[in-house]
Design brief:
- α1 packs across α3 and α1 crosses α4.
- The protein is mainly α.
């Protein structure tokens, strides 16, 4: 799976999660644009609890473990950085 595919999934899962929290209905298979803000906090309005829940969703989605010691400000700074970190974990 390519980095850009992982990034698309990261954005899609974030949008689905926040839509579900807000009681909205996402159409199945609807594409989420990755244009614009890359910050998950800014783009989706994640709280710290949302971010933790989102990381658990990503672990399950990609079959990985996001170790606490590797979740630094750089990795969590953007969806792109997080997607690259996930891609690296999937290659090991």
């Amino acid at each position: 799976m390519e980095d850009d595919q992982i990034l698309d999934i990261v954005h899609q899962r974030a949008a689905e999660m926040m839509a579900a929290r807000d009681g909205e209905v996402m159409e199945h298979g609807s594409a989420v644009s990755t244009e614009g803000a890359d910050s998950l906090m800014d783009r989706y309005g994640f709280s710290s609890m949302d971010a933790l829940e989102f990381l658990l969703v990503l672990e399950k989605e990609f079959g990985i473990t996001l170790a606490d010691e590797n979740l630094n400000g750089e990795v969590l700074s953007s969806a792109t950085a997080l997607a690259k970190h996930i891609a690296a974990l999937r290659q090991t």
